[in-house]
Specification:
It is a single chain. The chain has a single domain, classed as 4-Layer Sandwich (Metallo-beta-lactamase, Chain A). The protein is built from seven helices and ten strands. It has helices at residues 57-66, 83-89, 148-157, 170-173, 177-189, 207-214, 220-233; strands spanning 11-14, 17-26, 32-41, 46-50, 68-73, 94-96, 110-116, 120-126, 131-134, 194-197. The strands form two sheets. It has a six-stranded mixed β-sheet with strand order 1-2-3-4-5-6, with helices on one face. The model is unreliable at 1-5 (pLDDT under 50).
């Protein structure tokens, strides 16, 4: 199911980093989940596109003006029905999934980091802007635009924007609390300035604080130890 909403113009997040917003993708039980496509301009003018959404004529014209679409980065879930449209429009672009991203040529500008078990999740650091791009690790869905029945399901899952966090069951599928804790520790070590979510609101400030809040139930002891260590350093 999708919502009938206008697709706005690309929104600047930071220099060389934009969001394409307004689309929805089917999530569990048919919930129309908001989708944010992130576009980054790499050195040399190549464009890196995370979670490709609907490719409108306006978006295609804007992309042509910004650079050359060279990399299409596909999250593990949910399925994105528009990938074929992007591949048809940009046949020279490379599609990246899962572990292969650890050897991608763009990794010095956009650093990938993964946790995997029966499922895989990759987060990214856009080095120039200190922006962390998350797929499912944190979801913070604004429920007002959703149908009433979908709002209830989002609230029950605990992923509405009043307290964004991982969706139920994801931690176990990524190898458990230890694996997810290791991933989050490394992200915090990056010193991020903003969190850009694929599904839900963005956190434009206090990225580290918002990430600690979102992961507090999963890694309570680790966060306590980290806070004590940081206090001693001061």
């Amino acid at each position: 199911m999708s919502l009938s909403v206008p697709i706005p113009a690309p929104r600047a997040l930071a220099p060389g980093l934009w969001a394409l917003e307004g689309a929805h993708v089917a999530w569990r039980m048919g919930v129309p989940m908001p989708l944010r496509t992130v576009v980054a301009r790499l050195s040399g003018g190549a464009l890196w596109v995370h979670a490709p959404g609907p490719l409108t004529p306006g978006d295609a014209a804007w992309l042509e003006g910004e650079g050359r679409v060279a990399h299409l980065v596909v999250p593990a879930a949910p399925d994105l029905p528009w990938l074929d449209d992007w591949q048809a429009a940009y046949p020279a672009a490379r599609v990246w999934r899962g572990a292969e991203m650890s050897e991608a040529p763009w990794r010095r500008e956009i650093r990938p980091l993964s946790a995997s078990g029966t499922d895989c999740e990759t987060v990214f650091l856009h080095r120039e802007s200190r922006s962390v791009i998350l797929s499912r690790l944190v979801m913070a869905v604004e429920t007002a635009p959703l149908p009433p029945w979908a709002r209830v399901l989002v609230w029950l899952a605990g992923i509405d924007d009043s307290d964004g966090k991982p969706p139920p069951g994801l931690t176990g599928r990524l190898g458990g609390r230890g694996a997810v804790g290791d991933l989050v520790d490394k992200v915090l070590d990056w010193g991020p300035e903003r969190l850009i979510l694929t599904h839900g609101r963005c956190y434009e400030t206090d990225a580290a604080g918002e990430l600690r809040r979102a992961m507090r139930r999963i890694m309570r002891d680790r966060l306590w130890d980290r806070a004590l260590t940081e206090a001693r350093r001061r």
